[in-house]
Structure formats: structure tokens, C-alpha cells
Amino acid sequence: MTSAEPTFAFVSGNPALDLVATVESRRDAPRDMLATPADLERWVQQCDELPDRVTAGAAGLDAALTLREALHRLALDRVEERPFTPSALDVVNGAAARPLPTVELGDAGLRLTGDLRSALAQVARAGVTLLADRRAPVKECGRPSCTRLYVDRSRGARRTWCGMDACGNRVKAAAYRARKQERAARDR
């Protein structure tokens, strides 16, 4: 992997939210990790819930980005407890209505096959299923520079960051440093 290729993290608990997370730091300095059709192909390949191999062109990338932004809007609507945005509903419902990947069972286990449209349909349906549940614990990461949305499946739904590796360790390390500096200031 070259340094220009994005590294995808699948910590949101749902492929729809993982697709939304392909834009980092939406508040401050947004960075789109799906800049090219090849980036989208890599994302689909790395997502365990989608077909292993798809090809994407410019139109496929545009469709994925449109779906991503619609899912982001609907997830924020859910988090902020407001009615869904009608135009975003149209995009997600339209994508979810398309044919799904084919599921095959073999000695190696489950295998999904299909094209990009079927992969996006699978992502859209995952989003529909998640967002249809008004009690689904969808949250935004508590780390100030992270805007990832995630499903909080922790006991008591008390998780405050999207993932331990990406944000949890940083939050804990920052808190430790702050306590250490406070003790040092008191001891002077």
C-alpha cells in the first residue's frame, strides 16, 4: 500500500456508518478517503459484509458518495431526534430497493458475489435496518476532532468514542497527560 492510499477502519458497527466514516473530521478539515473509484473498490473489498471484488467507475463512485451523504444526513437526523430529511430518504430507499449480492455457501464458508450496485444496496439496507429502530444507540464519537458515528453496543450504552484504537487510546492518553500535568503543577 502506498502512503496515498487511505486506511479504512470498520469500527462503526454497521457498514452504512462505516461508509459515512470515509470522510474524516467533517467539522474541521474534512478528508474524503473515497477520492477515486479505486479507493471505493478497496473499501468494498475490505468490508466483510460486502462482495470481495467489485469494479467502480466514475458513475459508481458518484452513486456511492451520494449514498454516503444521504446516510450521514439520516444518521444525524436520528442522533438529533428530528424527522428524517426527505431527499436523503429518497436516495437511501432507492439504493436499498436494488438487487442484493448473491450469497453462496461453500467449504470455505459464506461468499458474497455481486457488482457495485448490489454492494451499495447491501449498505443501504444495513442503514435502513439500523435507522428504522428508534432505540438504536447511534452516537457520535466524543473525541472533539472525530466525527465518526457508531452503534454503541456496550453494556449500558456508555461508550463515548468510536473505537479504542482510533480514539479511545487518544482520549485516555490525553486525560492521563492532563492529570500528570495537574499533579506536577500542584507539587511545585
Automatic annotation (TrEMBL):
InterPro entries on file: ABATE (IPR010852), ABATE_dom_sf (IPR023286), Znf_CGNR (IPR021005)
Sequence ranges assigned to domain Zinc finger CGNR in this UniProt record: 138-180
Pfam families: ABATE, zf-CGNR
Gene3D superfamilies cross-referenced by the UniProt entry: Jann2411-like domain
SUPFAM superfamilies: Jann2411-like
Source domain of life: Bacteria
Official protein name in the record: CGNR zinc finger domain-containing protein
